[in-house]
Amino acid sequence: MTPPKPTIRLLLVPSPLVGPASWDLIAPRLAEPGREVTIPDLTSTVAAGPPWCSRQAELIARAAGGRPAVLVGHSGAGPLLAAAGAMIAQVRGYLFVDAGLPIPGQTWMDTAPPELGAQLREMADPDGWLPPWSRWWGEEALAEILPDPGTRERFAAGCPSLPLAMFTETHPPAPRWPEAPGAPCAYLRLSEAYEDQAARAAGLGWPVTRLASHHLALLTEPAGVAEAITELLRACRISDRTQS
Question: What's the domain count of the chain?
Answer without folding.
Answer: 1
